[in-house]
Amino acid sequence: MRILLSGATGYVGGFILADAAAHDDEIIALSRFGRQVAGAATSLRFDLNGDMSEIPVGIDALVHCAFDHVPGRYRGGEGDDPEGFLARNVQGSLKLFEAARRVGAERIVFLSSRAVYDGHPAGTVLTEDLPLDPASLYGRAKFDVETALVALAETGLITSSLRATGIYGTSQKGGWHKWQDLFQAFEAGENIAPRIGTEVHGADLAAAVRLVLMSERSKVSGQRFNVSDLCLDRRDLLDLYATRKGIDRPLPDHSDAAMVSQMDCTRLSGLGWQPQGQDGLLRFLAELG
């Protein structure tokens, strides 16, 4: 399969590239820097607010992971430019969809977020059919793009949106991961605040992307899919980490699991998705050494 991948140099892009390499797919990488991306056949400079005329013909599918935001922030990622934030991420995405369609793409997979559910009370079971009115501009931008993709599905494209929760793991040995600062602070003996949330390994998200790309139209087109695996308490995570590292540090208090809004992934599981669960978390921690 010849896949156009936006956000190829980002965190999620690394997992998509690794999965593509394992399945002998050809990746056309789009990134802000335009430098050659390891694992990609071709790399092109790309801006959600820029010209998209250089995208080559003969694309089978687009996987859209790029998102323009203030560094280090998704919710609140608009900074002091909410109008520009929405224009780049919503209108820019629609421009990319049309450009991909012009060069032959028949499928589009969009990386959305659990942020579309912002505004529902804590403890809500999150299903894809819940009514939505996102409380953050980040969630609003993702939801608006999802809505546009549903409309595009009615014109013949095969479109899907993946509502991913927090993503952990590394796509390559020694790569960056989301808990680096947390583990360093814990080892240094700093006071760690309690927290609990939902997580999915990046490789499991990449597997979900592949599933929707390979599934028949009737099962995926115009659909949204929740992508989540573990409900993980920071205390439990640090306890596992401390045990593997052989260190003795105070652990944060447990958080209230009843306050977590768990994502129901029945729809994605129906396609055959099987995330790694606790075993994947333990393998990740073991890989850290």
UniProtKB/TrEMBL annotation:
Residues 3-227 form the NAD-dependent epimerase/dehydratase domain. It comes from the Bacteria. It holds the Pfam family Epimerase. PANTHER family: BIFUNCTIONAL POLYMYXIN RESISTANCE PROTEIN ARNA, BLL5923 PROTEIN. This is NAD(P)-dependent oxidoreductase. It comes from Qingshengfaniella alkalisoli. The lineage of its organism: Bacteria, Pseudomonadati, Pseudomonadota, Alphaproteobacteria, Rhodobacterales.
